[in-house]
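Sat 14:20. Reprocessing the chain from the morning session after the first attempt stalled halfway. Input below, unchanged.
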Amino acid sequence: MAVSFVTLFQWRLNSVLLQQENEILLGVKDQILSLVSKLDEVGGSLGDPFFWTLHAHETAKSFLILSKPKLKKKGKEQMVSFIRKLDEVTGVSGDVERIWACYKTWVSEIRGTLREADDYVDDFIVKVYGETGQDRKESTAEFGSEIENIKSRVSEIMNRSPQLGFSPNLIEDIKKLLRSKFDEGTPLVSCMLSYMNLPSSTRKSGELMEDKAHVNLERLVDLGMLKEEVSIWDSYSVLSPYYEFSLSVMNAEDLFISTANSDSMIISPMARHVSILDVPNTITSMNTLQHSLTVLHNAKFLRVLDLENTLLKSLPDEISKLARLSYLGVTHSKLTELPESIGNLRNLQTLDISWSESEIEVSNGVLNVVQLRHLKMYQSTNDGEVRVPQGISRLRNLQTLEGIYAGGGIAKELGVMTKLRSLEVRCVSDDHADELYVSIMKLTRLQKLSLSVERVSESCDSSSSLQNENSILPCLESFSPPPLLQTLELEGRLIELPLWLGSMENLTQLHMCYCHLSENPTTILQFLPNLKYLRMSQAYKGRRMNKEFFRVGGFPKLEYLYISSDNLVEWTEIEEGALPCLKQLSIFYCMELMLLPEGLQHVTTLRILDMWNVHEDLIRRLSPNGGPENYKIKHIPLVKYLADMSHGFWGR
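Finished this time. Tokens:
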């Protein structure tokens, strides 16, 4: 945790250099880079065997406390014995408590210094943007002097770092001790070995924090500490016992995190991270929420404010006074506007106002949030589009822009927003499609793209297979996707599948919704070499799927397959050897489908079968209680289902 704290501040300094106007910081660039280099030394010290050993000791003690209610007498004795042995291996038996206290004091000094420095950077950014000419030069020079002072303080603290000589093989010795005392599959060993193998916090020159975060997430998934929720984009859950242990570490390291709900909304003035979640729509709860938000101005160090499911209709003025705020999330609300005062949040990097139940008017104030990197605005009303003010391209640091309408000249502006990595455009239409596609083809860093059209009618006729009729996605044949694109969502009718789709070698996720294709789309899609996630929701309007859809050699890396169709009546066969990596099959809203395909029993990698709103006869045929088609799915560990008259799961 301490190493990560240092690395985050290094990234903060680098982002200041990258995002500010060049002339502002030209005179202090060397001082900033020198401090970043000094912090590399701090990070190296925090990662040496001495500190890892102390963490191993504390991890074992914390795990013993957390696991005591579940451990039998023998298990507790093993844990205590292991902690004693750990002291012997490290050679500091009897002195661990004193050394650990000394270490925590030292780390606390580093963290305190960097927190103050972080606050100073925030204050400088707010101040310098309100100045011009000589005032700005003087403020910048003062900032450079303070950076030098911070470096001196860090050097002084480094000179007082605890010093003990340990074997360079100490970490391996601890791992051997763990394996000798416990079975490697026990929670303690898994937990401690995973923490010892945590991804490095080391920062590479020029690396963006978003890239490092992505690498770390993948590593944590590989270690079994996180689980990716495949049905929800960018969603992960922390698995036990890591969830409980991480909470205990955060509490011990005093990270100033406050979580509030309808029963308790007391916000500490020292809080740096506040979450207020799931506030009921009652007068008492809403009044309590409003009161809590009006006293937010006391939380002067607040960096993260997460308001989810609070049903707020407007942002209190107090939020615009939180000068150090870097993340503001107001999701699943009833917001109707983003006020001019939002422009006061000069340090804001992420603004998430998605899933509002009302149409949101975005003011020109958002154009002043020059540090903004991620802007997420998808609405749950109409077609989900948000109209942003002209001049949105002034936000030169934006990497994420989701939920926008590209008409009225916005399509052309997108072409100069070359740092964009994720773009979601709603209500694409003929009047701006050509200009939009030209702009998107200029976005060479784009990794995620979502295009959807206007919903032109909603049929109330239950016999209609097009209850959500969409207009046609225009001009796609003239489009050429950016080379790094990994995730693509197309929502709207297609006359035919664009040929360029089959050449997207980097594509890992594809979502096709309401495309209503007449021809088999997998004829092209099966040759995508890295596709892992395929969602076909009303993508194919045919009534029959045969073995041509999933053949041997096709979809070599596909792990998740989602199929939804009002029309599908028959899925006959999957070739044996097809879908060699499939882990989850989801069948939703296929009310006419009576049989799963022959050959499904040969997809031995399948771990989850999820059936939602399917015919009752299909569930009866698959039932483990005498269902004649059960042989096709009995190898699958977890089967979940919801039909007309039944729901539940089968598992082993």
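The two ends are 38 Å apart (CA to CA).
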